[in-house]
Structure formats: structure tokens, C-alpha cells
Design a protein that fits this description.
With about 400 residues, the protein is α+β, with helices and mostly antiparallel strands. The protein is built from eleven helices and five strands; from the N terminus they run αβαβααααββααααβα.
């Protein structure tokens, strides 16, 4: 008989937890191989010689082999204004010299660069011939058949103006292909500028005196009209001075009044001693009537009678009124004429004592050695520009290539 024994199940043995470790795989690039010149590298190098070295070499060859020497002449000047003082100041030797207004200097600065200035200089010196002498230098010289616009552009290249608004000083540097030509152009430029300032002074003087001349002409016209009206009045009335005539008439009237009084007294005396039929009474009365008639006539002439036989006849009162009116007009015209003449003379004196002129503090110089063209600077600028352009092109090419 078999016996079975029930064994308790055995407990599993405790095991340590397993930790799973994650590993990061790092791919290592292969070791770079030594750089080698490829086709694009050769193309870039070739482009450097074509775009930079070649043009720079050509520019250097032209500058040192073909470019003509240029000489410079400097001239410096300023616009001045001389103001003479009053006669007392002149006796004391006092004279004021001051700068001209900035507008004069600004006008002169623009005029030197204008087409009119270039045309006048060309007519005087034949600039086309002077600026086109070096036939071996077509790039830095002027075409003999150049238009006026091209000549103006070339003038601005050969004539440089340095202007200081604070001090009003202008310095001009003139370049030419010979020292004599540069000095000649600078001297002609200074002479024409001086003439320009004189013209400005003349124009300013005319503008100042124009109003004074118009006022003087108007005053003279009024004076002539007043004198003509007074002369016409005298011719029509045949009276030179009604005031003097009326004084004579008043003297005559006073004399008649005295005679009338004497006649009336005499008549009263006769009537008191004789009869009315006495011839002396008749004669005395007749004398009184004549004197009264004459007094009435003289009063009528003076305009104090109140009655006139002829309404169209001019009495002394009206004549004196007309004469006084014309006399007042004449006196006013004379005073206006004197004032206008004084203002005109004062304006002319003021305009004459204020004169502008061009003062040269640096006469046109004569160069001994050429200073232009500045070959080293031009060559450095050309090389820098070529290298910068080539660099931009190459970087742009590689930038586009890397984006593919």
C-alpha cells in the first residue's frame, strides 16, 4: 500500500529585479580626407584673376603709361563791401570795411559752376582745346567735339570749389594738363567773378535809386504843372499878383471915400448959405454922384458890392481866391520837389559809398609738379571695388549652391 505524502509547495526563490540599460548610438563621421582642388575651385581662382587682377593691372597700366599729368592752380577770394562814412568821418580817416551779405557769395558760388560761366570761359580761352590736348589719354581728357553739357560736366571735374559759409571765403582749384593753362584758367575765372560782383553792385545801385528817381520825376512833373497853371492864370487875367492889385484898389477906394466925405461937407456948407438953385449946389451934388458911382464901381471890382451889372465878370475876390489856390499848389509842388531832390541825392550818395568788390587773398598759383591724377589712390579704389564685387559674387554663388 502506497502512501502519499502531501508536501507543501516550495516558495520560489527571491530574484533581484533586472535593470534594462539603454545605450545611445553615436555615429562617428569618417575622418575627412585631405582637401583637393576641384573644378569649381579652379573656376573661382580663375574668376579672381579675370575679375580682380586683370582689370586692376589694366587700370594700373593705363594710369602709369597713358594717363596725362594734371597741374593745379589755386586762387582764393572773398566778396567784400566797403562802406564810407559821413563827410566828418572821412575827414577823420574812418572807413568801415565789412563782409558782403551771404547771398552775394552764394550767387558767386553757383555762378562759377553754371553753364553761362563755362560758355564764357570757352569763348575766351577755348576750353575744348585746352582740355583735349593729351590725345594719348582719352579717358581723363575731353572729347574735342564735346557738347556744352559734356563740357560743363568736365568743368566740374577739373574745377573744384571750396566754400566756407561762416567766413565767406571761396577757394578754387583749377586743373589742366599744363601749369600755364591751369594758371590762365584760374586768372580768367577770377576776373570774370570780379566782373560778376561789379554787375551785382550796379544792379543793386539801380534798384536802390529807381524809386528815388521815380519820385523825383513825379515831383518835377507836379511842379511844372503848378507853374504852368499859374502862368496861364496870369495871362488870362493880365494880373501878375492880385494881392498887390487889390491893395492898390483898396487905397483908391479909401481915397474916394475921403473925397466923398469932403464933397458932402462942402455941399452942406453951400446949402446952409445959399439957395437950392445956386449952380454951386448943382455942381456939388453932381460931384457927389460921380464919386459915389466910382466907389460903387470899385467895390464891384473888389466883390464887396453885392450887385454886379455883368454876371460873367470876374471880381477881385474870385481872382484872389484862384490865385491863392494856385499859389498854394505851387508852394506844395516846390516843397515836394525839394524833398524828392534831397532824397534822390541822399540815395545816390548812399549807393555810391556802398560798393562790393572781390578781394583775392590768394593769387592764381603756378604749379611746378603735377599732383593729378592721384594714381595710387585711384588704383587702390579700383582694386578694392573689384575685390568687393568679386567677393559678393562668389559668396552669392556658394550660398545658392548650399541651398540645393
Amino acid at each position: 500500500m502506497t502512501t502519499t505524502t502531501n508536501k507543501a509547495p516550495s516558495k520560489p526563490k527571491a530574484t533581484k529585479p533586472q535593470v534594462r540599460t539603454k545605450f545611445r548610438v553615436i555615429e562617428v563621421a569618417p575622418i575627412a580626407t585631405p582637401a583637393q582642388f576641384r573644378l569649381r575651385h579652379w573656376i573661382v581662382l580663375l574668376s579672381f584673376f579675370v575679375c580682380v587682377v586683370g582689370p586692376a593691372t589694366a587700370a594700373g597700366w593705363y594710369l602709369y603709361q597713358r594717363a596725362a599729368d594734371q597741374y593745379s592752380s589755386n586762387v582764393g577770394f572773398a566778396v567784400r563791401r566797403e562802406e564810407a562814412g559821413s563827410p566828418l568821418d572821412l575827414l577823420g580817416g574812418i572807413t568801415n570795411i565789412s563782409n558782403a551779405s551771404s547771398s552775394d557769395t552764394d550767387i558767386l558760388y553757383e555762378f562759377i559752376q553754371s553753364q553761362e560761366m563755362v560758355r564764357e570761359m570757352d569763348d575766351l580761352l577755348d576750353l575744348r582745346t585746352l582740355f583735349s590736348r593729351p590725345s594719348s589719354d582719352p579717358m581723363l581728357s575731353l572729347d574735342p567735339n564735346a557738347s556744352i553739357e559734356d563740357l560743363v560736366d568736365f568743368w566740374k571735374r577739373m574745377v573744384r570749389i571750396f566754400y566756407n559759409p561762416g567766413t565767406g571765403l571761396i577757394e578754387v582749384e583749377v586743373r589742366a594738363f599744363s601749369a600755364k593753362d591751369a594758371q590762365l584758367i584760374a586768372q580768367a575765372l577770377f576776373d570774370r567773378s570780379s566782373q560778376m560782383i561789379n554787375e551785382l553792385s550796379s544792379i543793386a545801385r539801380k534798384d536802390v535809386t529807381l524809386y528815388a528817381k521815380e519820385e523825383l520825376a513825379l515831383a518835377i512833373s507836379r511842379l511844372k504843372q503848378a507853374r504852368a497853371a499859374l502862368t496861364s492864370f496870369r495871362n488870362e487875367t493880365r494880373i501878375v499878383d492880385p494881392t498887390a492889385d487889390i491893395q492898390g484898389q483898396m487905397g483908391l477906394l479909401n481915397s474916394l471915400q475921403a473925397q466923398l466925405a469932403e464933397a458932402l461937407i462942402e455941399l452942406d456948407l453951400i446949402i446952409g448959405t445959399t439957395r437950392d438953385s445956386d449952380p454951386r449946389v448943382t455942381q456939388a451934388r453932381r460931384r457927389i454922384e460921380v464919386i459915389e458911382t466910382r466907389i460903387e464901381e470899385e467895390r464891384r471890382k473888389l466883390g464887396v458890392s453885392g450887385t454886379t451889372d455883368n454876371a460873367n465878370s470876374a471880381v477881385f475876390a474870385d481872382l484872389v481866391g484862384q490865385f491863392e489856390s494856385l499859389r498854394v499848389d505851387l508852394e506844395f509842388a516846390e516843397q515836394a520837389y525839394v524833398a524828392a531832390l534831397s532824397a534822390h541825392d541822399s540815395t545816390l550818395s548812399e549807393a555810391r559809398r556802398k560798393s562790393r568788390y572781390l578781394a583775392a587773398y590768394l593769387e592764381p598759383t603756378l604749379a611746378e609738379t603735377p599732383r593729378y591724377p592721384q594714381r595710387e589712390m585711384i588704383l587702390a579704389i579700383v582694386g578694392f571695388v573689384l575685390f568687393a564685387c568679386w567677393t559678393i559674387i562668389v559668396l552669392t554663388y556658394y550660398s545658392l549652391r548650399d541651398r540645393r
